[in-house]
Amino acid sequence: MPDSLAPELPLRPDLVGEQPYGAPQLDVPHLLNVNENPYAPPAEVIEDIATSVAAAAAGLNRYPDRDFRDLRAELAAYLERESGASGLTADHLWAANGSNEVMLHLLQAFGGPGRAVMSFGPTYSMYPEYARDSHTHWVEGSRRPDYSLDPDATIAHIAQVRPAVVLLASPNNPTGTALPLADVRAIADACATTGPDGAATILVVDEAYAEFRRKGTPSALSVLADYPHMAVARTMSKAFALAGARVGYLAAAPRLVDCLRIVRLPYHLSAVTQAVARAALRHTDALQAQVTQLRAERDACVTWLRDQGFTVADTDANFVLFGPFEDRHAVWQGLLDRGVLIRETGPKQYLRVSIGTVDQMAAFRGALKEVTGR
Ligand code: PMP
């Protein structure tokens, strides 16, 4: 049918002019733009994943385990080991196709028309999209100039808006800023009474990058047991080097998890995904073998950028926000022309680079020197 005869499609008015979310996916040697782990799974892990997927394939005529209790129990065990938290069981865990979907479930269950979701910018640019897609009003508060949260101002703003959900990324994307545990506690205490109609506000601590945190930065999981209205979201996309598998999860009180079970689509986590995730969890140490090295590379990158005279945010994640640039797009393009893809995101004069292999970081430094003439 020629375009001129195409019928009008009844796209929701609030979606007219919207673009699909996503950074450019380009075929260049140094992909440092979406905070992936640059190390592919080792051979023994690939083999176990392949065997596990073959076993799952034999049953693909049947729907998968809708409640994926084995995977949830194994994720609970991993989180206890990783964070030192105790008392986590399958009932405390939830999972979906990436932590993006986990957080969408939170908004579907607790947001909605007449309700608000808040976060504090600059922060993860998908958050307003969860709000839009769940018809929840989006309110963005602010951070201090160093991107930390001012707990008193944050609590006052939450008390004024009375949101159903607050999303706090720690470490925050795109700045790398971690939230001190005392601030998590103070905000969680306040959230107990700031929700709609006298209810609590659901406080979501998004710890997608938690495994990269520096020593002495505890996970919010260590206080989760005290807060029935708190959820801590994690992902296998970053430290686990499993972005392609699409597995995200959260821990929360079983009553909160039961609310999410209402809104999930039936069988949302495929048998193949469950098999891959469970195989990966058997090889946590091998998959996360480079996390220590990535942390060291990150700290070296921060030091090097500061030595070059850039302003660099303190970071507990596997990426670094740096600048300022008069024309950040020109710098981004100059790096791309040299085979290095980074991200134009966050404050207007800043760029974000994900931490890659030793060779990739050398390529990044070389290209940035050429482009900026420093
Ligand atoms: N939270 C934050 C802060 C992120 O940066 C990302 C990915 N960029 C996610 C959540 C979602 O990751 P995934 O859906 O791959 O788990």
Automatic annotation (TrEMBL):
In terms of superkingdom, the source organism counts as Bacteria
- Could you tell me which Pfam families the record lists for this protein? Aminotran_1_2
Using the record's annotations, give every residue carrying the modification N6-(pyridoxal phosphate)lysine. Answer: 238
- Is Amino-acid biosynthesis among this UniProt entry's keywords? yes
Reported EC number(s) for this entry are: 2.6.1.9
What EC class is this?
transferase
What CDD domains does the record point to?
A: AAT_like
The protein's name:
Histidinol-phosphate aminotransferase
Give the originating organism.
Ruania alkalisoli
Phylogenetic lineage: Bacteria, Bacillati, Actinomycetota, Actinomycetes, Micrococcales
Q: Which gene encodes it?
A: hisC
